[in-house]
Amino acid sequence: MELFNNLVFGFSVALTWQNLWFCFIGCFLGTLIGVLPGIGPLATIAMLLPITFNVPPVAALIMLAGIYYGAQYGGSTTAILVNLPGETSAVVTCLDGYQMARQGRAGPALAIAALGSFFAGTVCTLIIALFGPPLAEVALKFGAPEYFSLMLMGLVAAAVLAGDNITKALAMVVMGLLLGIIGTDVNSGMARYSFGIPELTDGIGFIVIAVGVFAIGEIVLNLGDPEERAVFTNKVTGLMPTKKDLKDSFWPIVRGTGIGAFLGVLPGTGPAIASFSSYMVEKKLAKDPSRFGKGAIEGVAGPESANNADAQCKFIPTLTLGIPASAVMALMLGALTIQGIAPGPQVMTQKPDLFWGLVASMWIGNAMLVILNLPLIGLWVMLLKVPYRLLFPAIMAFSCIGIYSVNNSPFELYLTALFGIIGLAWAKLDMPPAPMLLGFVLGPLMEENLRRALLISRGDPTVFFTRPISLGFMIATVLILVIMVLPAVKARRAEITDAPPT
Amino acid sequence: MKFDWRNNRDFFGGLMYIVTGAIAIWIARDYPFGSALRMGPGYFPTVLAGMMICFGVAIMAMGFSNKEKIKGNWSIRALIVLPIATAVFGWMMEEAGFIPALLVLIPFSAAAGREFKWIEIGLLTLGLTILCTGMFIYGLGLPYPLIKGMWGY
To answer: Could you give the CA distance from residue B123 to residue A486 in angstroms, rounded to a whole number?
Structure first.
């Protein structure tokens, strides 16, 4: 019954006019950037992060979350209509969704994608509500050794699962950890790596790195290799799926939700991996696998549910443990920190309105997206015709204003410019920047917990292996590394990550 | 195929790590190292920097065997123009105010692209400046002077 009371409380928070409005803005913006290729949720959230400072915490998080799951919806729309994945997670949707559109069945494809996502969203809202509180309860008992092991596991898992080259991803994690050290050491008060620049004694702003690498670096990259855009020719007629469509899609949606929810809790797996896995499963289970790639509705229903489930379940470790499971979640934690809320298991007890309001808003947001998306498809498709040369100056303007507004300091912009250049160099050298961002966020926390753990144990490093929970995390870390280096898994991963990049 | 370090992707990737790690260790020499029991401010960075160098060597070795080249164009123009535009915006915000800073930033950034149509960029600049002023200054109430030296600022 407590669950019920909590959800009612959550809805009472989420249903205030202000929060509904921010939920709407988030979903709208999310769909918008989901539709547009070349700008993803990561860059958008990084760009809007500073602005959320002027908004109450609950509303800010509701909006940012809306951008994130809204982007999954938007990405599928363009995948189905113009064979152009707006987001990486929609690459699979292109395979069968676009074929359906070519057969004149774009309407049912879009409707099934929306319904599947909505179903996944509903289930995941319940999962978060059910498992969030007990997880946070356990996490409250964690000491420094447990936190250190947990973060180590999170970083290793993120590095191993995210990029296609484990060595490079791990190296980028270390790069992030090192960047996180810049600033004043909390224990000794000593300024480290500040190069005598007073602004650097506060450390590098999280937003500076995020915008520099993900927004500006990406623009430079896009301008270097311009992509040709397909011209839209299809017409959407009749949205309603037939009874047979619904029957065919039901189990794929349920399975996709399960796969997405499971993978979502693991750190490092993006929605793309969830949708690929779901597609593989559906193809294996199908009576006639040859239909796949020729407009099978299961190939739309499963992956679309899976990527939405993944996107939402990513919030579980973020909100209950304070450990971000992906780069976007690291930004969410950044938003909390900007608001002066320390992320961690105590958020749920100290700020119940934030936790439950956000959970409830996700369900409302998903409902909004169904309503928002289906009638407005014409508008989204028109947006695709906006050329990139008009888009990127706007991205630049919003990013720059956002960064300046954090500290009202021009220095932050100089630093952002520098990270724009570094970001491009990383991209060209094939260094994945997402693990770096996770390392950067967790760096100071890891050092702090490492020091504390060794202080408690009087310098004995076995402390990480003698406490059962910590030992569990350590074993899991080693297992993740070992499994991923096995040749069979390596080949399978290559299959998944070798999909057309966007 | 002969090994050519000048265009080898992972050679430079590895080099970047080794150099970064080495500089980090060199700077951290001045920080008290401490012991495992009482870690000084130099402990964690030195360990990390050491790991960086190891990764750098491993990645460089990868470069020697896979001989991957750096892909795509470098878009030197965007690489120079966009960071400068960002920095100039910061400076203009201090010296000239919100509107002049945007009026410089938007066409400046647009110049990083391949096509530059005067009328189009002019309209875009005007539209975006009005939109940003409305949204950030009046909508969100950010406390920046629109133009420095006017209206008593």
So the answer is: 57
**Tens of pLDDT, residues B71-93:** 666 677 888 888 888 888 888 88
d(CA A36, CA A46): 17
Q: How far apart are CA B127 and CA B130, in angstroms?
A: 5
Contacts B23 to A, Cβ<8 Å: none
pLDDT digits (tens, 9 = 90+) for A426-454: 888 888 887 888 788 778 888 888 888 88
Distance CA B110, CA B121 (A): 7
For chain B, the first-to-last Cα distance in angstroms comes to: 66
Q: Percent of chain B, pLDDT > 70?
A: 87
Closest CA to A90 of A81, A99, A101, A78: A78
SS3 of B34, please?
A: strand
Residues 41-60, chain B, touching A (beta carbon < 8 A): 41, 44-45, 48-49, 51-52, 55-56, 58-59
Contact: A397, B27; criterion CB under 8 Å: no
Tell me if A224 and B73 make a contact (CB, 8 A cut-off): yes
Backbone torsions φ then ψ of B61, nearest 5 degrees: -60, -40
- Tell me which residue of A169, A161, A179 sits closest to A447, measured CA to CA: A179
Cα A119 to Cα A125: distance, rounded to the nearest angstrom: 10
| B132–A contact, CB cutoff 8 A | yes
Burial class (CB in 10 A: 0-12, 13-18, 19+), A448: middle
CA distance A480 to A173: 16
- Closest Cβ–Cβ partner in A175, A220, A401 for B75: A220
Angle (CA) A28-A31-A34 rounded to 5° is 150
Reported as type and span, the H/E element at residue A192 is: strand A191-192
Q: Which of residues 12-41 of B touch A (CB under 8 A)?
A: 12-13, 16-17, 20, 24, 27-28, 31-32, 35-41
User: Which chain B residue lies closest to A171 (C-alpha atoms)?
Assistant: B55
The mean pLDDT value for B91-101 works out to 84
Q: Are B136 and A401 in contact (CB under 8 A)?
A: yes
For residues A200-222, give the mean pLDDT.
Answer: 78
Residues 82-101 of B with CB under 8 A from A: 82-87, 89-91, 93-94
The nearest CA of chain B is from the CA of A14 a distance in Å of 21
Q: How far apart are CA B55 and CA B49, in angstroms?
A: 10
CA atoms within 13 A on the CB side of A454: 17
Partner residues linked to A184 by β-bridges: A191
d(CA B57, CA B13): 10
Instruction: Let me know: does A260 contact A305? Beta carbons within 8 Å.
Output: yes
pTM of the model: 0.76
Contact list, A54 vs chain B (CB under 8 Å): 140-142
> For residues B80 and A327, what is the distance between their CA atoms, to the nearest angstrom?
27
Residue type at B58? A
Which tokens in the block code for residue A95? 């395979």
